[in-house]
Design goal:
The protein has 15 helices and 13 strands. It is an alpha/beta fold and 408 residues long. It has a domain of 202 residues: Rossmann fold, CATH 3.40.50. A hairpin with a 5-residue loop joins strand 1 and strand 2. It starts with a strand and ends in a 6-residue tail after the last helix. The model has no long low-confidence stretch (mean pLDDT 97). The chain binds pyridoxal-5'-phosphate (PLP). The site of pyridoxal-5'-phosphate has 21 residues, from helix 5, helix 10 and helix 14. Pyridoxal-5'-phosphate binds next to helix 5, helix 10 and helix 14.
Amino acid sequence: MRFHYRCSDCGKEFRTDGIMYQCPDCAAENDGTRFPKGNLIVELEEEVLRAAASKEHVTPDDFYPYPSPDPDSYPVGITPLMRPRRIQRKLGLPNLSFKLDSQLISGSFKDRASYEVALQAIAHGERKIALASTGNAGAAMSAVGAAMGLDIVLFVPASAPINKLMQSVLYGAHVIPVKGTYDDAFALSIEYTKLFGGINRNTAYNPMTIEGKKSISIELFEQMGRRIPDAVYVPVGDGCIIAGVAKGFSDLRKAGLIDRLPRLIACQSEASDAISRAIRNDDFRIVSATTRADSISVDLPANGRMAASYVRESGGWAVTVPDQAILDSQLVLTSLAGVLAEPAAACAYAALEKDRGHLISELGADAEVAVLLTGTGFKDMKAFDGRVSIPPAIENSVEAVRALPSFD
Ligand SMILES: Cc1ncc(COP(=O)(O)O)c(C=O)c1O
């Protein structure tokens, strides 16, 4: 047995390596008005951590509850660690980097969680995985399902960006658009697995999603020459990615490979700021999320409690930005770094721009800062409507070329 579970709220341990979703006692208190309780943390056994510690180089497989028998069947990372020189100069942060998870196979960070849940399904002889998604997790699970021959049942808000839905259909998933919010789709997908079986991959509800997401921290550690950043800016909706980032560093620390944690900075839109409120004021109430950054538009964050406590434990903080700053940041990223990021991902950069002065006062301008750019902008080009215009076509003639203005 490589692991056991622990309730993130009451601390109770569950010594099984079977499939578990939540602590039954704590989950029984959930009433839909406050952040849910009872999410489970996967704890690796001592010998797994010792084996990882003895290696010259580690990979996520060394820390997965379900290691991959065939990592090349759907490679998850290593994603590029970009040093955006023009943005470093603009912000006066010479050690800034961008982790480009937009380069994962389905175009978002969500491949990381989906891969580990697929391994869980295969280990338990399950062929069907159901989930709810704002779009990216569904596309990622559908892509992994296609590569591994699994059946994916996907509940998404009907308003999700069309490219994300098309992707999932193309990968062969059973896509069920829901006339409701992401939170509605979340609840329906849980009902679906209760009624029809299979594994439920809902973010944080299935603790293996956090375990998959932690791979980014293992990757960063090796990519940075066995060092870790001083601060990581993470876009936050449900709070599962940021918990995964925290868990990866925490596992590295338990293995004795690092002796501190980076500051985790939770980046949200002002129009979907539930977890920021929890970090700042211990406020665990539902919000009405209206942000254009669809992937981080969440009323009731599925992993809000765990995310808020990990951010605090790291000495980090929350930054919220208006939607306009998110949309402006997309254009900064394209024009100064050549990176096309979806709004949710651009939120992490928008938060860094806003927080720059505070960051420097806390950690100094030489701090090693990583921004997670979690999803590609190609999936949601509608976000640029009204902001980009394609110039009119010219006649096919040399005269028309001569008549062009100078572009110098
Ligand atoms: C591109 C992107 N960034 C950030 C997030 C936020 O992750 P979480 O909901 O785990 O906080 C998501 C979630 O869907 C996403 O798709």
